[in-house]
Amino acid sequence: MTQFDMQVIPFEAVLNFRDMGGYKTRDGRVVKNGQLYRSSALGKMTAADKERFEALGVKTIFDYRDQHEALNNPNPIFKGAKYIQIPAKGNHTFEMPTNTGGHNFYKVVSPEMFRDFYAQMPFNNAAFKKLISTIQNPANLGLVHHCAVGKDRTGIGGALILLALDVPEETIMQDYLDTNIYLRPMVERMAQAIQHTFNDKELQQFHALMSAREDYLQAAFDAIDHRYGSKTIFLEQEFGLTTEKRLQLQENCLC
Asked: What is the pLDDT of residues 57-112, one digit of tens each?
């Protein structure tokens, strides 16, 4: 059984739900299972999905969507789970595609704009500041963090968590790119639905924006290195993760 097989938790109506455990850190330790999950939006859960979710013992649901997105597709209420919702999009003028932007999003937002989106998300972002402070308290774990499809905002959130846990960047990139496998059925359905109203260039752009692409996440890594010189300094100055706090987080989340 591969790492990939072990991580995915199959829901009937929730895509891309994964346990972030099992990854090896640089010093050979392993991220614990059942502590940190990444996902798409939870709002379409079936009764069976809700049962499966409750069995995971999730204590914190961290939602990166904005108010409008969350109202359009509200998360189910689970007793005993704490809800945190802070938009992670930042100051970008475009609407997310699940919001009022609709299908026009794919016609007006270019891959270059999306790379810029990724390059800006890690900095001065209230959602990620709250995320990193939240995971430092073991009482908040298991935590599931999610956006609409669990690719972009969740991709950055997942990368930040794994960086803080000292997981190698190649592994973090693979965790991000694995999203393409889980979203493929949804992307194919959407492409089918829009193909008659999109020209070839627009369809190419749609696929580019619906993909987890190496150049997107790399833009974030490069921006961090450019601004701070190292990921360690970045984590300390953006999130207050001093050496002591980072070691404590690793103690809590690694085995």
From this structure: 999 999 999 998 999 999 999 998 999 999 998 776 666 665 544 567 777 788 89
**What is the DSSP secondary-structure string of 25-57?**
-TTS-BBPTTSEEEES--TT--HHHHHHHHHTT
Indicate the helix (H) or strand (E) that contains 176.
Answer: helix 169-177
| Among 251, 249, 224, 252, CA closest to 238 | 224
H-helix or E-strand containing 135? helix 126-135
User: Which residue type occupies 35?
Assistant: Q
Q: Measure the CA–CA gap between 6 and 199, rounded to whole angstroms.
A: 39
pTM above 0.85, yes or no: yes
From residue 180, give the alpha-carbon distance in Å to each of 8, 152, 167, 176, 212.
13, 12, 21, 8, 6
The closest of 233, 221, 242 to 122, measured between CA atoms, is 221
- Asked if 225 and 113 count as a contact pair (C-beta separation under 8 A), the reply is no
Counting every residue, how long is the chain? 255
In the chain, domain spans: 3-253
**Segments of 34-168 assigned E as strands:** 36-39, 60-63, 82-85, 143-146
Token output for 109? 């937002």
Is residue 194 within 8 A of residue 103, CB to CB? The reply is yes
For 177, counting Cβ atoms within 10 Å of its Cβ (0-12 exposed, 13-18 middle, 19+ buried), the class is middle
Give CA separation, 56 vs 11, 132, 139, 232, 255, in Å: 12, 21, 15, 32, 19
- Architecture (CATH level 2) of domain 3-253: Alpha-Beta Complex (3.90)
